[in-house]
Amino acid sequence: MGLGFLHRHRGTTPYLLLLPGLLWLGVFFLVPLGFLVYQSLQSGNFVVGYAFHWAWSNYWDSVKGYSGEFERSFEYAGIATALALIVSYPVAYWIAFRGGRWKNLLLLFIVAPFFVTYLIRTLAWQTILSDHGFVVRSLATLHLVAHGGRVLNTAVAVVAGITYNFLPFMALPLYVSLEQIDARLIEAAEDLYASKLHAFLRVTVPLSLPGIVAGTLLTFIPAAGDFINAQLLGSPTNHMIGNVIQSKFLETGDVPVAASMSFILMAIIVVMVLAYARAVGTEQLTG
Amino acid sequence: MSTVDATLPARPSGPAAAARAWAFVRRHVLTVYSLLFFAYLLLPIGVVVVFSFNNPPGQFNYTWHSFTWNNWRYWNGVPGIQSAIELSLEIALIASLIATALGTMIALALVRYRFRGRAGTNILVFLPLSTPEIVLGASLLTLFLNSNLIGFTIQFGFWTILIAHVMFCISFAVVTVKARLIGFDRHLEEAAMDLGANEWATFVKVTLPLIAPAILAALLLCFAISIDDFVVTYFNAGSDVTFPIFVWGAARIGAPPQVNVIGTAIFAIAVTFMLVNVFLQDRRAKAA
User: Most A CBs within 10 Å: which of B27, B35, B54, B139, as the mutation test of the A interface?
Assistant: First the structure.
Protein backbone atom coordinates (compact mmCIF):
# COMPACT_ATOMS: atom_id res chain seq x y z
CA MET A 1 0.00 0.00 0.00
CA GLY A 2 1.01 3.57 -0.67
CA LEU A 3 0.84 4.67 2.94
CA GLY A 4 3.21 1.90 3.98
CA PHE A 5 5.75 3.27 1.54
CA LEU A 6 5.30 6.74 3.08
CA HIS A 7 5.89 5.49 6.60
CA ARG A 8 9.00 3.51 5.76
CA HIS A 9 10.70 6.56 4.33
CA ARG A 10 9.34 9.20 6.62
CA GLY A 11 12.59 9.34 8.60
CA THR A 12 14.97 10.21 5.78
CA THR A 13 12.78 11.90 3.14
CA PRO A 14 12.76 15.41 4.67
CA TYR A 15 16.53 15.31 5.12
CA LEU A 16 17.08 14.22 1.53
CA LEU A 17 14.86 17.08 0.35
CA LEU A 18 16.74 19.58 2.49
CA LEU A 19 20.27 18.35 1.80
CA PRO A 20 21.21 20.10 -1.48
CA GLY A 21 19.63 23.47 -0.63
CA LEU A 22 20.92 23.65 2.92
CA LEU A 23 24.34 22.50 1.78
CA TRP A 24 24.41 25.40 -0.68
CA LEU A 25 23.31 27.88 1.99
CA GLY A 26 25.76 26.40 4.47
CA VAL A 27 28.80 26.47 2.21
CA PHE A 28 28.09 29.77 0.46
CA PHE A 29 26.31 31.74 3.19
CA LEU A 30 27.20 30.45 6.70
CA VAL A 31 30.80 29.35 6.10
CA PRO A 32 31.64 32.67 4.35
CA LEU A 33 30.49 34.55 7.47
CA GLY A 34 33.19 32.59 9.32
CA PHE A 35 35.72 33.52 6.67
CA LEU A 36 34.64 37.14 6.98
CA VAL A 37 35.63 37.07 10.65
CA TYR A 38 38.85 35.20 9.83
CA GLN A 39 39.74 37.78 7.19
CA SER A 40 38.89 40.65 9.54
CA LEU A 41 41.63 39.49 11.92
CA GLN A 42 44.33 39.41 9.26
CA SER A 43 46.74 42.14 8.33
CA GLY A 44 48.55 43.01 5.16
CA ASN A 45 47.65 44.48 1.81
CA PHE A 46 46.97 43.61 -1.78
CA VAL A 47 50.66 43.59 -2.76
CA VAL A 48 52.32 41.56 0.02
CA GLY A 49 49.28 39.40 0.74
CA TYR A 50 47.41 38.86 4.00
CA ALA A 51 48.32 36.89 7.11
CA PHE A 52 46.22 35.94 10.11
CA HIS A 53 47.39 37.10 13.52
CA TRP A 54 44.43 38.15 15.66
CA ALA A 55 44.62 41.73 14.40
CA TRP A 56 41.88 43.13 16.62
CA SER A 57 43.19 46.57 15.77
CA ASN A 58 41.22 46.36 12.48
CA TYR A 59 38.02 46.67 14.49
CA TRP A 60 39.36 49.59 16.43
CA ASP A 61 40.54 51.27 13.23
CA SER A 62 37.13 50.88 11.55
CA VAL A 63 35.20 52.29 14.46
CA LYS A 64 37.62 55.11 15.15
CA GLY A 65 38.31 56.08 11.57
CA TYR A 66 34.81 55.68 10.15
CA SER A 67 32.37 56.42 12.95
CA GLY A 68 30.89 59.19 10.78
CA GLU A 69 30.07 56.76 7.97
CA PHE A 70 28.58 54.26 10.43
CA GLU A 71 26.39 56.93 12.02
CA ARG A 72 25.31 58.25 8.64
CA SER A 73 24.30 54.75 7.49
CA PHE A 74 21.93 54.25 10.39
CA GLU A 75 20.72 57.84 10.35
CA TYR A 76 19.88 57.80 6.63
CA ALA A 77 18.38 54.32 6.85
CA GLY A 78 16.30 55.32 9.89
CA ILE A 79 14.94 58.49 8.29
CA ALA A 80 14.24 56.73 5.00
CA THR A 81 12.40 53.92 6.82
CA ALA A 82 10.25 56.39 8.77
CA LEU A 83 9.47 58.35 5.60
CA ALA A 84 8.60 55.19 3.70
CA LEU A 85 6.21 54.15 6.48
CA ILE A 86 4.47 57.53 6.61
CA VAL A 87 4.27 57.91 2.85
CA SER A 88 3.04 54.41 2.01
CA TYR A 89 0.66 53.66 4.92
CA PRO A 90 -2.24 55.73 3.52
CA VAL A 91 -1.81 54.16 0.10
CA ALA A 92 -1.68 50.61 1.50
CA TYR A 93 -4.84 51.49 3.45
CA TRP A 94 -6.51 52.89 0.37
CA ILE A 95 -5.77 49.79 -1.72
CA ALA A 96 -6.79 47.42 1.08
CA PHE A 97 -10.15 49.08 1.83
CA ARG A 98 -11.04 50.92 -1.36
CA GLY A 99 -9.17 48.96 -4.03
CA GLY A 100 -12.11 46.70 -4.84
CA ARG A 101 -11.55 44.79 -8.04
CA TRP A 102 -8.55 46.95 -8.95
CA LYS A 103 -6.46 45.64 -6.04
CA ASN A 104 -4.18 43.41 -8.10
CA LEU A 105 -3.57 46.09 -10.69
CA LEU A 106 -2.78 48.69 -8.01
CA LEU A 107 -0.34 46.28 -6.37
CA LEU A 108 1.32 45.89 -9.75
CA PHE A 109 1.86 49.67 -9.76
CA ILE A 110 3.44 49.42 -6.30
CA VAL A 111 6.02 46.87 -7.43
CA ALA A 112 6.52 48.49 -10.84
CA PRO A 113 9.74 50.30 -9.80
CA PHE A 114 11.30 46.90 -9.05
CA PHE A 115 11.03 46.03 -12.73
CA VAL A 116 13.45 48.78 -13.68
CA THR A 117 17.03 47.83 -12.87
CA TYR A 118 17.97 49.32 -9.48
CA LEU A 119 20.92 51.27 -10.86
CA ILE A 120 18.91 52.64 -13.77
CA ARG A 121 16.07 53.95 -11.62
CA THR A 122 18.61 55.60 -9.33
CA LEU A 123 20.20 57.20 -12.38
CA ALA A 124 16.71 58.44 -13.31
CA TRP A 125 16.61 60.26 -9.95
CA GLN A 126 19.95 61.78 -10.88
CA THR A 127 18.23 63.22 -13.95
CA ILE A 128 15.13 64.35 -12.03
CA LEU A 129 17.08 66.05 -9.24
CA SER A 130 19.78 67.50 -11.47
CA ASP A 131 20.61 71.19 -11.16
CA HIS A 132 18.59 72.29 -14.20
CA GLY A 133 15.71 69.85 -13.70
CA PHE A 134 12.17 70.96 -12.94
CA VAL A 135 12.33 69.82 -9.29
CA VAL A 136 15.17 72.17 -8.40
CA ARG A 137 13.62 74.99 -10.45
CA SER A 138 10.25 74.63 -8.69
CA LEU A 139 11.87 74.47 -5.27
CA ALA A 140 13.87 77.58 -6.11
CA THR A 141 10.69 79.41 -7.16
CA LEU A 142 9.17 78.52 -3.80
CA HIS A 143 12.39 79.67 -2.10
CA LEU A 144 12.80 76.22 -0.58
CA VAL A 145 16.18 76.02 -2.26
CA ALA A 146 18.45 79.03 -2.65
CA HIS A 147 18.92 80.24 -6.22
CA GLY A 148 21.90 78.39 -7.60
CA GLY A 149 21.38 75.86 -4.82
CA ARG A 150 21.15 72.18 -5.53
CA VAL A 151 19.48 68.98 -4.42
CA LEU A 152 21.75 66.49 -6.16
CA ASN A 153 24.88 65.65 -4.14
CA THR A 154 23.20 66.43 -0.83
CA ALA A 155 21.97 64.28 2.05
CA VAL A 156 18.39 65.07 0.97
CA ALA A 157 18.94 63.43 -2.41
CA VAL A 158 20.52 60.34 -0.82
CA VAL A 159 17.68 59.87 1.70
CA ALA A 160 15.10 60.51 -1.03
CA GLY A 161 16.76 57.91 -3.23
CA ILE A 162 16.87 55.30 -0.46
CA THR A 163 13.24 55.99 0.46
CA TYR A 164 12.12 55.55 -3.13
CA ASN A 165 14.17 52.47 -3.87
CA PHE A 166 12.90 50.46 -0.89
CA LEU A 167 9.30 51.78 -0.85
CA PRO A 168 7.72 48.55 -2.19
CA PHE A 169 9.37 46.61 0.68
CA MET A 170 7.35 48.82 3.04
CA ALA A 171 4.09 49.13 1.12
CA LEU A 172 3.55 45.43 0.37
CA PRO A 173 3.72 44.05 3.96
CA LEU A 174 1.56 46.99 5.11
CA TYR A 175 -1.01 46.11 2.48
CA VAL A 176 -0.99 42.42 3.39
CA SER A 177 -1.65 43.12 7.07
CA LEU A 178 -4.28 45.82 6.39
CA GLU A 179 -6.04 43.60 3.86
CA GLN A 180 -6.56 40.91 6.52
CA ILE A 181 -8.36 43.29 8.88
CA ASP A 182 -12.08 42.62 9.13
CA ALA A 183 -13.70 45.96 8.21
CA ARG A 184 -16.51 45.19 10.67
CA LEU A 185 -14.04 45.52 13.56
CA ILE A 186 -13.33 49.10 12.53
CA GLU A 187 -17.04 49.85 12.11
CA ALA A 188 -17.70 48.44 15.56
CA ALA A 189 -14.92 50.58 16.98
CA GLU A 190 -16.36 53.65 15.29
CA ASP A 191 -19.70 52.88 16.89
CA LEU A 192 -18.06 52.56 20.29
CA TYR A 193 -15.36 55.21 20.23
CA ALA A 194 -16.36 58.81 19.70
CA SER A 195 -14.04 59.69 16.83
CA LYS A 196 -12.81 58.01 13.70
CA LEU A 197 -9.27 59.01 14.62
CA HIS A 198 -9.51 56.99 17.84
CA ALA A 199 -10.85 53.99 15.99
CA PHE A 200 -7.96 54.28 13.56
CA LEU A 201 -5.30 54.62 16.25
CA ARG A 202 -6.70 51.99 18.62
CA VAL A 203 -7.92 49.37 16.15
CA THR A 204 -6.52 49.74 12.64
CA VAL A 205 -2.94 50.59 13.57
CA PRO A 206 -2.52 47.84 16.20
CA LEU A 207 -4.02 45.26 13.87
CA SER A 208 -1.60 46.27 11.13
CA LEU A 209 1.40 46.03 13.48
CA PRO A 210 2.78 42.82 11.89
CA GLY A 211 2.92 44.65 8.57
CA ILE A 212 4.59 47.68 10.15
CA VAL A 213 7.22 45.45 11.77
CA ALA A 214 7.91 43.45 8.61
CA GLY A 215 7.97 46.59 6.45
CA THR A 216 10.36 48.53 8.67
CA LEU A 217 12.78 45.59 8.86
CA LEU A 218 12.64 44.88 5.13
CA THR A 219 13.35 48.56 4.47
CA PHE A 220 15.85 49.34 7.19
CA ILE A 221 18.18 46.36 6.73
CA PRO A 222 19.00 46.83 3.04
CA ALA A 223 18.99 50.62 3.47
CA ALA A 224 21.68 50.52 6.18
CA GLY A 225 24.03 48.54 3.93
CA ASP A 226 23.32 50.50 0.77
CA PHE A 227 26.01 52.43 -1.06
CA ILE A 228 24.47 52.95 -4.49
CA ASN A 229 22.29 55.93 -3.54
CA ALA A 230 25.13 57.66 -1.68
CA GLN A 231 27.43 57.06 -4.64
CA LEU A 232 25.07 58.21 -7.40
CA LEU A 233 23.02 60.89 -5.62
CA GLY A 234 25.36 62.14 -2.90
CA SER A 235 28.76 63.71 -2.53
CA PRO A 236 31.68 62.10 -0.64
CA THR A 237 30.47 63.89 2.52
CA ASN A 238 27.29 61.78 2.29
CA HIS A 239 29.10 58.47 2.01
CA MET A 240 27.78 55.62 4.11
CA ILE A 241 29.65 52.65 5.51
CA GLY A 242 28.75 50.61 2.42
CA ASN A 243 30.75 53.01 0.27
CA VAL A 244 33.82 52.50 2.46
CA ILE A 245 33.43 48.71 2.53
CA GLN A 246 33.04 48.62 -1.23
CA SER A 247 36.03 50.80 -1.98
CA LYS A 248 38.31 49.07 0.54
CA PHE A 249 37.39 45.60 -0.73
CA LEU A 250 37.43 46.30 -4.44
CA GLU A 251 39.53 49.38 -5.01
CA THR A 252 42.20 49.92 -2.35
CA GLY A 253 42.57 46.27 -1.34
CA ASP A 254 42.38 47.06 2.38
CA VAL A 255 40.48 43.80 2.78
CA PRO A 256 40.93 43.00 6.51
CA VAL A 257 39.62 46.40 7.68
CA ALA A 258 36.76 46.19 5.18
CA ALA A 259 35.91 42.71 6.50
CA SER A 260 35.83 44.01 10.07
CA MET A 261 33.50 46.84 8.97
CA SER A 262 31.15 44.36 7.29
CA PHE A 263 31.09 42.31 10.47
CA ILE A 264 30.39 45.35 12.65
CA LEU A 265 27.60 46.45 10.30
CA MET A 266 25.98 43.05 10.50
CA ALA A 267 26.41 42.80 14.28
CA ILE A 268 24.76 46.20 14.83
CA ILE A 269 21.87 45.26 12.56
CA VAL A 270 21.33 41.91 14.32
CA VAL A 271 21.32 43.60 17.75
CA MET A 272 18.90 46.28 16.53
CA VAL A 273 16.56 43.73 14.95
CA LEU A 274 16.52 41.62 18.13
CA ALA A 275 15.88 44.66 20.32
CA TYR A 276 13.15 45.84 17.97
CA ALA A 277 11.52 42.41 17.83
CA ARG A 278 11.53 42.26 21.63
CA ALA A 279 10.12 45.78 21.95
CA VAL A 280 7.16 45.18 19.67
CA GLY A 281 6.76 41.68 21.01
CA THR A 282 6.30 39.93 17.72
CA GLU A 283 7.43 36.39 17.15
CA GLN A 284 6.25 36.26 13.58
CA LEU A 285 9.60 37.31 12.17
CA THR A 286 10.59 34.01 10.64
CA GLY A 287 7.15 33.40 9.16
CA MET B 1 -16.38 52.87 4.83
CA SER B 2 -15.08 56.29 5.51
CA THR B 3 -11.62 57.21 6.66
CA VAL B 4 -9.36 59.34 8.79
CA ASP B 5 -9.94 62.37 6.62
CA ALA B 6 -13.06 63.06 8.68
CA THR B 7 -10.84 64.58 11.36
CA LEU B 8 -9.81 67.46 9.14
CA PRO B 9 -11.27 70.75 10.33
CA ALA B 10 -14.30 72.05 8.44
CA ARG B 11 -13.79 75.21 6.43
CA PRO B 12 -15.95 78.30 6.93
CA SER B 13 -18.40 78.64 4.05
CA GLY B 14 -17.14 80.69 1.13
CA PRO B 15 -18.32 80.93 -2.45
CA ALA B 16 -20.38 77.89 -3.28
CA ALA B 17 -18.01 76.55 -5.95
CA ALA B 18 -15.00 76.71 -3.65
CA ALA B 19 -16.95 75.02 -0.88
CA ARG B 20 -18.01 72.28 -3.23
CA ALA B 21 -14.44 71.81 -4.40
CA TRP B 22 -13.24 71.64 -0.82
CA ALA B 23 -15.92 69.13 0.08
CA PHE B 24 -14.83 67.03 -2.87
CA VAL B 25 -11.17 67.14 -1.81
CA ARG B 26 -12.12 66.29 1.77
CA ARG B 27 -14.14 63.32 0.71
CA HIS B 28 -11.48 62.08 -1.68
CA VAL B 29 -8.32 63.19 0.07
CA LEU B 30 -7.09 59.62 0.42
CA THR B 31 -7.76 58.88 -3.24
CA VAL B 32 -6.08 62.08 -4.38
CA TYR B 33 -3.10 61.35 -2.15
CA SER B 34 -2.84 57.80 -3.48
CA LEU B 35 -2.90 58.98 -7.08
CA LEU B 36 -0.13 61.48 -6.30
CA PHE B 37 1.80 58.63 -4.67
CA PHE B 38 1.51 56.53 -7.83
CA ALA B 39 2.64 59.48 -9.92
CA TYR B 40 5.71 59.75 -7.69
CA LEU B 41 6.32 56.02 -7.91
CA LEU B 42 6.11 55.98 -11.69
CA LEU B 43 7.94 59.27 -12.36
CA PRO B 44 11.47 57.77 -12.59
CA ILE B 45 10.15 54.98 -14.82
CA GLY B 46 8.72 57.62 -17.15
CA VAL B 47 12.10 59.36 -17.17
CA VAL B 48 13.87 56.10 -18.07
CA VAL B 49 11.47 55.46 -20.96
CA VAL B 50 11.49 59.03 -22.29
CA PHE B 51 15.27 59.37 -22.15
CA SER B 52 15.68 56.13 -24.10
CA PHE B 53 14.51 58.22 -27.07
CA ASN B 54 16.79 61.16 -26.32
CA ASN B 55 19.56 62.21 -28.63
CA PRO B 56 22.00 63.79 -26.18
CA PRO B 57 24.51 66.24 -27.65
CA GLY B 58 27.36 65.17 -25.36
CA GLN B 59 28.16 62.16 -23.20
CA PHE B 60 25.58 63.07 -20.51
CA ASN B 61 22.01 61.93 -21.02
CA TYR B 62 20.58 64.31 -18.37
CA THR B 63 18.73 66.96 -20.35
CA TRP B 64 16.28 66.47 -23.19
CA HIS B 65 17.72 67.35 -26.56
CA SER B 66 15.84 65.77 -29.46
CA PHE B 67 13.87 62.66 -30.34
CA THR B 68 15.50 59.71 -32.05
CA TRP B 69 14.83 56.03 -32.73
CA ASN B 70 18.55 55.36 -33.06
CA ASN B 71 19.14 54.24 -29.46
CA TRP B 72 16.61 51.48 -30.01
CA ARG B 73 17.83 50.63 -33.49
CA TYR B 74 21.46 50.47 -32.32
CA TRP B 75 20.73 49.11 -28.84
CA ASN B 76 24.04 47.25 -28.85
CA GLY B 77 25.95 50.14 -30.36
CA VAL B 78 27.94 50.68 -27.17
CA PRO B 79 30.99 48.41 -26.78
CA GLY B 80 30.45 45.77 -24.11
CA ILE B 81 26.72 46.22 -23.61
CA GLN B 82 25.63 43.16 -25.59
CA SER B 83 28.01 40.73 -23.92
CA ALA B 84 26.98 42.15 -20.52
CA ILE B 85 23.30 41.49 -21.27
CA GLU B 86 24.08 37.99 -22.55
CA LEU B 87 26.00 37.15 -19.38
CA SER B 88 23.19 38.51 -17.19
CA LEU B 89 20.56 36.47 -19.05
CA GLU B 90 22.65 33.31 -18.92
CA ILE B 91 23.30 33.65 -15.19
CA ALA B 92 19.66 34.55 -14.42
CA LEU B 93 18.35 31.56 -16.37
CA ILE B 94 20.64 28.96 -14.78
CA ALA B 95 20.56 30.47 -11.28
CA SER B 96 16.75 30.70 -11.18
CA LEU B 97 16.41 27.07 -12.33
CA ILE B 98 18.84 25.73 -9.70
CA ALA B 99 17.56 27.98 -6.89
CA THR B 100 13.91 27.14 -7.59
CA ALA B 101 14.64 23.40 -7.63
CA LEU B 102 16.54 23.57 -4.34
CA GLY B 103 14.04 25.99 -2.80
CA THR B 104 11.02 23.89 -3.75
CA MET B 105 12.58 20.85 -2.10
CA ILE B 106 13.24 22.79 1.10
CA ALA B 107 9.68 24.17 1.07
CA LEU B 108 8.24 20.65 0.65
CA ALA B 109 10.30 19.36 3.58
CA LEU B 110 9.32 22.31 5.80
CA VAL B 111 5.59 22.15 5.15
CA ARG B 112 5.12 18.39 4.80
CA TYR B 113 7.30 16.89 7.50
CA ARG B 114 7.91 17.25 11.19
CA PHE B 115 11.58 16.55 11.74
CA ARG B 116 14.40 17.39 14.07
CA GLY B 117 16.09 20.65 13.00
CA ARG B 118 12.98 22.17 11.43
CA ALA B 119 13.22 25.39 13.44
CA GLY B 120 16.91 25.70 12.59
CA THR B 121 16.14 25.22 8.90
CA ASN B 122 13.54 27.99 9.04
CA ILE B 123 16.11 30.33 10.56
CA LEU B 124 18.80 29.39 8.04
CA VAL B 125 16.38 30.15 5.19
CA PHE B 126 15.32 33.43 6.79
CA LEU B 127 18.85 34.70 7.55
CA PRO B 128 20.04 35.55 4.02
CA LEU B 129 16.86 37.59 3.52
CA SER B 130 17.67 39.69 6.58
CA THR B 131 21.36 40.19 5.85
CA PRO B 132 22.40 43.34 3.98
CA GLU B 133 23.52 42.49 0.46
CA ILE B 134 26.91 44.04 1.03
CA VAL B 135 27.59 41.55 3.84
CA LEU B 136 26.46 38.64 1.64
CA GLY B 137 28.76 39.83 -1.12
CA ALA B 138 31.72 40.64 1.12
CA SER B 139 31.63 37.37 3.05
CA LEU B 140 31.37 35.25 -0.09
CA LEU B 141 34.34 37.20 -1.48
CA THR B 142 36.41 36.34 1.62
CA LEU B 143 35.52 32.65 1.13
CA PHE B 144 36.81 32.78 -2.44
CA LEU B 145 39.88 34.83 -1.48
CA ASN B 146 40.84 32.29 1.18
CA SER B 147 39.94 29.19 -0.81
CA ASN B 148 43.62 28.37 -1.23
CA LEU B 149 43.55 27.32 2.44
CA ILE B 150 41.50 24.27 1.49
CA GLY B 151 43.42 23.61 -1.69
CA PHE B 152 41.31 25.40 -4.29
CA THR B 153 42.22 28.17 -6.66
CA ILE B 154 39.13 30.16 -7.52
CA GLN B 155 38.87 31.96 -10.80
CA PHE B 156 36.46 34.85 -10.37
CA GLY B 157 33.86 35.08 -13.12
CA PHE B 158 30.90 33.05 -14.38
CA TRP B 159 30.98 30.35 -11.72
CA THR B 160 31.48 32.63 -8.74
CA ILE B 161 28.61 34.84 -9.96
CA LEU B 162 26.39 31.79 -10.47
CA ILE B 163 27.18 30.43 -6.99
CA ALA B 164 26.34 33.82 -5.45
CA HIS B 165 23.06 34.18 -7.35
CA VAL B 166 21.80 30.71 -6.45
CA MET B 167 22.72 31.45 -2.82
CA PHE B 168 20.60 34.60 -2.48
CA CYS B 169 17.75 33.26 -4.64
CA ILE B 170 17.10 30.03 -2.67
CA SER B 171 15.37 31.78 0.25
CA PHE B 172 13.05 33.70 -2.08
CA ALA B 173 12.10 30.46 -3.82
CA VAL B 174 11.43 28.73 -0.47
CA VAL B 175 9.18 31.56 0.74
CA THR B 176 7.21 31.67 -2.53
CA VAL B 177 6.56 27.93 -2.77
CA LYS B 178 5.91 27.56 0.98
CA ALA B 179 3.12 30.13 0.83
CA ARG B 180 1.31 28.02 -1.76
CA LEU B 181 1.93 24.68 0.00
CA ILE B 182 0.45 25.89 3.28
CA GLY B 183 -2.95 26.50 1.73
CA PHE B 184 -2.93 23.11 0.02
CA ASP B 185 -5.59 20.42 0.39
CA ARG B 186 -3.78 17.28 1.52
CA HIS B 187 -6.89 15.16 1.02
CA LEU B 188 -6.15 15.12 -2.72
CA GLU B 189 -2.88 13.34 -2.07
CA GLU B 190 -4.42 10.97 0.45
CA ALA B 191 -7.07 10.13 -2.10
CA ALA B 192 -4.40 9.35 -4.71
CA MET B 193 -2.59 7.09 -2.28
CA ASP B 194 -5.82 5.34 -1.27
CA LEU B 195 -6.33 4.60 -4.93
CA GLY B 196 -2.98 2.84 -5.03
CA ALA B 197 -0.51 5.49 -6.20
CA ASN B 198 2.86 5.33 -4.47
CA GLU B 199 4.53 8.36 -2.95
CA TRP B 200 6.48 9.27 -6.09
CA ALA B 201 3.50 8.84 -8.43
CA THR B 202 1.36 10.95 -6.10
CA PHE B 203 3.97 13.66 -6.10
CA VAL B 204 4.35 13.75 -9.89
CA LYS B 205 0.66 13.33 -10.77
CA VAL B 206 -1.03 15.31 -7.96
CA THR B 207 1.30 17.51 -5.94
CA LEU B 208 3.46 18.89 -8.72
CA PRO B 209 0.62 20.08 -10.99
CA LEU B 210 -1.06 21.75 -8.02
CA ILE B 211 2.02 23.69 -6.93
CA ALA B 212 3.18 24.41 -10.51
CA PRO B 213 1.94 28.04 -10.42
CA ALA B 214 4.00 28.64 -7.27
CA ILE B 215 7.07 27.05 -8.86
CA LEU B 216 6.62 29.26 -11.93
CA ALA B 217 6.23 32.32 -9.69
CA ALA B 218 9.43 31.38 -7.84
CA LEU B 219 11.28 30.96 -11.14
CA LEU B 220 10.20 34.39 -12.37
CA LEU B 221 10.99 36.03 -9.04
CA CYS B 222 14.47 34.47 -8.93
CA PHE B 223 15.08 35.46 -12.55
CA ALA B 224 14.07 39.06 -11.82
CA ILE B 225 16.20 39.29 -8.68
CA SER B 226 19.20 37.73 -10.39
CA ILE B 227 19.13 39.95 -13.46
CA ASP B 228 18.81 43.07 -11.28
CA ASP B 229 21.50 42.21 -8.73
CA PHE B 230 24.46 44.52 -8.53
CA VAL B 231 26.01 44.47 -5.07
CA VAL B 232 26.69 40.76 -4.50
CA THR B 233 27.67 40.34 -8.15
CA TYR B 234 30.07 43.26 -8.10
CA PHE B 235 31.94 41.72 -5.16
CA ASN B 236 32.30 38.31 -6.82
CA ALA B 237 32.50 38.95 -10.56
CA GLY B 238 36.23 39.55 -10.89
CA SER B 239 36.62 41.27 -14.24
CA ASP B 240 33.44 39.79 -15.75
CA VAL B 241 30.73 42.31 -16.55
CA THR B 242 27.00 41.71 -16.05
CA PHE B 243 24.47 44.29 -17.20
CA PRO B 244 24.18 46.08 -13.79
CA ILE B 245 27.99 46.17 -13.54
CA PHE B 246 28.06 47.67 -17.04
CA VAL B 247 25.60 50.37 -15.92
CA TRP B 248 27.70 51.11 -12.83
CA GLY B 249 30.81 51.56 -14.94
CA ALA B 250 28.97 53.62 -17.55
CA ALA B 251 27.44 55.88 -14.86
CA ARG B 252 30.89 57.16 -13.95
CA ILE B 253 31.47 58.63 -17.38
CA GLY B 254 27.82 59.33 -18.24
CA ALA B 255 25.51 56.42 -19.06
CA PRO B 256 24.61 56.18 -22.76
CA PRO B 257 20.90 56.20 -23.74
CA GLN B 258 21.22 52.51 -24.69
CA VAL B 259 21.19 51.80 -20.95
CA ASN B 260 17.69 53.33 -20.84
CA VAL B 261 16.70 51.23 -23.84
CA ILE B 262 17.63 48.00 -22.05
CA GLY B 263 16.05 49.25 -18.81
CA THR B 264 12.81 50.01 -20.67
CA ALA B 265 12.87 46.62 -22.42
CA ILE B 266 13.35 44.69 -19.15
CA PHE B 267 10.57 46.76 -17.57
CA ALA B 268 8.17 46.13 -20.47
CA ILE B 269 8.79 42.37 -20.45
CA ALA B 270 8.39 42.10 -16.65
CA VAL B 271 5.19 44.16 -16.64
CA THR B 272 3.75 42.05 -19.45
CA PHE B 273 4.37 38.90 -17.40
CA MET B 274 2.76 40.50 -14.36
CA LEU B 275 -0.27 41.77 -16.30
CA VAL B 276 -0.85 38.30 -17.76
CA ASN B 277 -0.61 36.90 -14.23
CA VAL B 278 -3.09 39.45 -12.84
CA PHE B 279 -5.45 38.73 -15.74
CA LEU B 280 -5.25 34.97 -15.19
CA GLN B 281 -5.84 35.39 -11.45
CA ASP B 282 -8.91 37.50 -12.08
CA ARG B 283 -10.26 34.97 -14.55
CA ARG B 284 -9.61 32.12 -12.11
CA ALA B 285 -11.32 34.10 -9.36
CA LYS B 286 -14.35 34.68 -11.58
CA ALA B 287 -14.47 31.02 -12.60
CA ALA B 288 -14.39 29.90 -8.96
Answer: B139
Domain that holds residue B105: 81-255
The Cα–Cα gap between B37 and A106 comes to 11
A51 - beta bridge partners? A43
pTM of the model: 0.88
Q: How far apart are CA B167 and CA B175, in angstroms?
A: 14
Closest approach of A106 to chain B, Cα-based (Å):
9
Chain B residues whose CB is inside 8 A of the A58 CB are none
We report the CATH number of the domain holding residue B193 as: 1.10.3720.10
Kindly give, in sequence order, each residue whose CB lies less than 8 Å from that of residue B226, ignoring residues fewer than 6 positions away: B88, B91, B92, B95, B96, B165, B169
Tell me whether A65 touches chain B (CB under 8 Å): no
Q: Is residue B65 part of a domain?
A: no
pLDDT band at residue B288 using 50, 70 and 90 as cut-offs:
low
Domains belonging to chain A, first-starting first, are 1-32 (no CATH), 66-280 (1.10.3720.10)
pLDDT in tens, A13-71: 889 999 999 999 999 999 999 999 999 999 887 777 788 888 899 999 999 999 999 99
Q: Which residues of A touch B175 (CB under 8 A)?
A: 287
Model confidence pLDDT, tens digit, residues B207-235: 888 889 889 989 999 999 999 999 999 99
Residue A43 β-bridge partners: A51
| Count of domains observed in chain B | 1
Please give the single-letter amino acid code of residue B203: F
Judged against a pLDDT cut of 50, whether residue A286 lies above it is answered with no
In a domain, B51, yes or no: no
Task: Report yes or no: B146 at the A interface, CB cutoff 8 Å.
Answer: yes
B132–A221 C-beta distance less than 8 A: yes
Q: Is residue B68 part of a domain?
A: no
At B1-42, the pLDDT tens digits run 444 444 445 555 557 888 888 878 777 899 999 999 999 999
Residue B223 placed within a domain? yes
Position A287 scores a pLDDT of 43
Measured on CA atoms in the order A134, A122, B61, B92, is the torsion positive or negative? negative
